[in-house]
Amino acid sequence: MATNAVYQFLKVQNRPYSANDITSNLQEFSKANVHKALDNLVESKKIFEKIYGKQKVYCVVQDGTQEPEEFMRIQRELDLYLPQITSKKLELERELRSKEAELAALKSSLSLTEAKNENTRLLNSIKKMEDELETIISKNGSENFGEVKTCLLKKIENYTREYSKRKRLCAEIIESILEGFPGTKKGLYEEIGIETVDLG
Question: In this entry, which stretches build a coiled coil (predicted)?
Fold first, then answer.
């Protein structure tokens, strides 16, 4: 039944078709049935197949009464059909590579069980840090750590300002001494016991 239906379809259409195209048009038959019908028709020489790369197209064998122009028309259609098949093949190959990449990404990602275990580990880590913070707060009373930090920064700023003033004053004194000192600045440092050159 499928063999006759496939033959009649190709005969009426009178143009090349691939097995997939025939299956799409004859949806009452499975792909396997269509392929088997095509093999039978090729074997019985009612149709012929032409291979383009990895693709096959099928066309009805014309009887001897056909005009040469008809054969040329069929050949032109076969030639026109080639770019369509090639384009479809490239499209399917691109889609296949994309799916393979998605599959590889899924394989390399965490499984559901691994993701659950990682989530549990992170939650435990957060709980541990929260407990440590609570311990620190309890040991230091209910002080606001933001205020403590601000206070400490202010003290550091005051100490730095005072240090800069004294450093500048000391540098001025040393420069005054150097005006009447016969040696070098390094010699003066050694003589009065200054161990750093930070004041220079």
Answer: 82-139
Interatomic CA distance for residues 164 and 188, integer angstroms: 22
Nearest CA to 91 out of 13, 30, 20, 14 is that of 20
User: pLDDT by residue (tens digit) across 100-141?
Assistant: 777 676 666 656 677 777 778 888 888 887 777 777 666 665
Tokens of 84: 């369509």
Collapsed DSSP state (helix, strand, coil) of residue 38:
helix
From CA 170, how far away is CA 176, in angstroms rounded? 10
pTM beyond cutoff 0.85:
no
In contact, 42 and 60? CB cutoff 8 Å: no
Instruction: Provide the sign of the torsion angle of the four alpha carbons 189, 194, 197, 200, taken in this order.
Output: negative
- Angle value at C-alpha 58, between 56 and 59, nearest 5 degrees: 150
Count, residues in the chain: 200
Residue pLDDT, tens place only, 156-174: 887 788 877 877 887 787 7
Task: Give helix 185-192 / helix 145-180 axis angle, nearest 10°.
Answer: 110
pLDDT 10s digits, 44-58? 888 888 887 677 888
In angstroms, the CA 131 to CA 166 distance is: 45
What one-letter code names the amino acid at 10? L
Widest pairwise Cα distance in the chain: 129
